[in-house]
Amino acid sequence: MRRPKRLETWLISGVTCLSLLLCALFGGISYQILSRSITEQSGAKALGLAHAVATRTDVITALQTGHSSPQLLAAIEGIRLASKADFIVVGDTHKYRIVHPDSDKIGKKMEGGDSQAALEGESYISEAQGSLGRSIRGKVPVLDEQGQIIGLVSVGFLSQSVGALIDKRIPEIIMTVLGVLLMGVLVAFWMGRQVREMLFGLQPAEIGRLFVEQDAILNTVRMGVVALDADGRIRKLNQRAREILALSPTCQPNTLRLNDLLPQHADFLLTNQNKTIRGFELFANEQWLVMSRVPFQVRDQNDGLLLTMRPADEIERLSQQLAKVQEFAEMLRVQTHDYSNKLHTLGALLQLKAYDKAVEFIGQESQGWQAQIHLLLSQIHEPTIAGLLLGKYHKAKELNIEFQISPDSQLSDVQDAIMLERMVSIMGNLIDNAIEAVHRANNHKPRRVVVTLDETASNLIFDVEDSGDGISKTEYSTIFDPDYSSKQGAQHGVGMYIVNTYLCACHGSLEFADSDLGGARFSVYIPTKPLPEVGTV
Q1: Is residue 393 a contact partner of residue 373, using CB atoms and an 8 Å limit?
Q2: Dihedral angle computed from the Cα positions of residues 355, 357, 362 and 367, in that order, rounded to the nearest 10 degrees
Q3: What's the pTM value of the predicted model, to 2 decimals?
Q4: pLDDT class for 139, splitting at 50, 70, 90?
């Protein structure tokens, strides 16, 4: 089977053939222009020389007397040789020659049939066949003192002499054409290499196969994929993305922008494009989507973004199960670590026979734990919220942070499953932020986090306070920005944005101020009456 030509071979061959064609065309046009230019120059030179000869006194005298002297013939011959003209002929009004470079032709009639106009007073350039051959001639009438025409002067350059002048310039044209051709070939090779590098060495057949494979893969996966350029124009999206975003099958992706698909979140998704964000939730097209954003890197430069999305309800059950398992495992790990240390301490007290100290130590530990359990059981009647708070209690305790649930807290069962899910996300993010703020604080205040829950006839209310470094005034206006974060990592910087998203979906609100503990205080208000969902942020 014959192997197909490589792309760079086609490119080099095509550019080389085009260069040959252009060089041939250039050479032909250049030759025509050069031939015409030399011919016109020869005619103009002949006409100027004829004017100079026609005004000579000895030429006028010779025409008046009807014969030429040897001195005149010698003078005219000298002018001819000096000007490199092929002939200078002087004729009378009857076109008989009185001056000619060939003495045998003197006294004979002029040939060519192009002299009559000169005897009528015109000066012109003509081309005709004369006694010496075909030539380019300049013809001028000769006038006496009274202005009467007494003859004419004809100066000419033979066509073969003009052709010889043209032939001398042909090597220059050939060298120029060859130079242009060589440059075209070099450019063809350079273009071939550049194209090969830009296409990563792939040939047209390979590119076509890769495109088909990519299209098949994208339309097979059950995750929506959207490729964007840097300013938000859609490059490509798969069939699953069309279904998730409710787009028409006939809709052309290259006519869309991200603002057309996700108008509420386009600014967030196009901000800080160097940053990878994975697994965040957004409300769009009347549904919650789990999305990730990854920047494109082409030759170490950002060339756009890749968005992946999937409806949250498809993975909600699995993610909830996984979250519960992880939370339970984390709780067991913390408890194992904590109680291992306490058992070692209790064992040492017993070995030292410090029984009173051992009993006191047991009482102190059980008192704090039982107080939290009693408070959760008696005042927090929603098991999911109680489990969340218990898990955060252990997390804070591992970091040596006092986690306190206000004794005034109370919360009944939450019947709305969707609202409960959002409350867990909001409370979890705020408590995690508070614990992190206390853990990073550089002050010498007691390391505390206090959570208060309450409910009224119209709202569920909870506060989260900490003794961290607080929030500066400059951060008040940026805390809900999607790229705001005081931590490092791909997923940091979207926690408060997600909190705000859930609050808007619940028609809730959030206030923040300085805490009495010395850090920040966040207060959340969520209406208890179910309201239609919105997707604004």
Answers
A1: no
A2: 140
A3: 0.43
A4: very high
